[in-house]
Design brief:
It comes from Lasiosphaeria hispida. With 261 residues, the chain is an alpha+beta fold. It has a single domain, classed as Jelly Rolls, CATH 2.60.120. The strands form four sheets. Strands 5-13-8-15-6 form a five-stranded antiparallel beta sheet, sandwiched between helices.
Amino acid sequence: TINFIAPLPKWDTEKPFNLAWPLPADQPKINSIYDKHEVQIADGRGREGEFSLDLHGFAFAKMSAKDSLRSKEAIQTEYVAQVESWLKQFLGAEKVVAFDFAVGPLTFKRSSSQRLKNDNSINQTLEAALSRLRLYFDGETESLVNGRVRFINVWRSLIEPLEDTPLAVMDAQSLAAEDLMAHDIVYPHHLGENYLVKFNSNHRWYYLSRMTTEECILIKNLDSELHESARMCPHAGFEDANTPPKAPWRKSVEVRLIVFN
């Protein structure tokens, strides 16, 4: 199952939001409402080479990184730079800059109510991407956007094999513009925006079964090339009916990068 933003009349007059700072207990941080849907998710194992960022919006790849995954500190000081260098070579890019990273739960001591959410989304809208470029590259933005700009996530499991809550990615060719709903992420000093996704039976989903720590998934969140068929790729964790009962709960790391050409 995957969560999709519910198609409610309230969205005609109200925009979904997430307030990303501490609030009083009686003040809502979010107003989004989701529906769960059962979806068919095809296994890309054995077909890894069939998928590409430009055609599907995602790709499966291998990148050795065990030594730099030993701790959150090593991830921050070593792994992020390693991903920057690797992705630059992998894509033949002129410049790659990591602007954020996220490490999934670093402990298995979670209650059943703390299981990972299966909401699916796209991390950036065009306006949010331009805002982020101005935030990080003040004075360079105009020259940078003259070329191709891509926002790409590199996601990998920190345990192997990964069996609990694998990551699913949608074939971008099956995504329609009307499936997207803009969603505000409000920080104390910055307004972000991403896309939530409405359910559509035409969507095609994929995952990579039993991922190892040597494998990663590349996810395109935005591409400035308007003619590309795959400009963005929704993604979400999902509840896999084949997960063994005692499978360790998922731990993962995701590096978010801007790719310039």
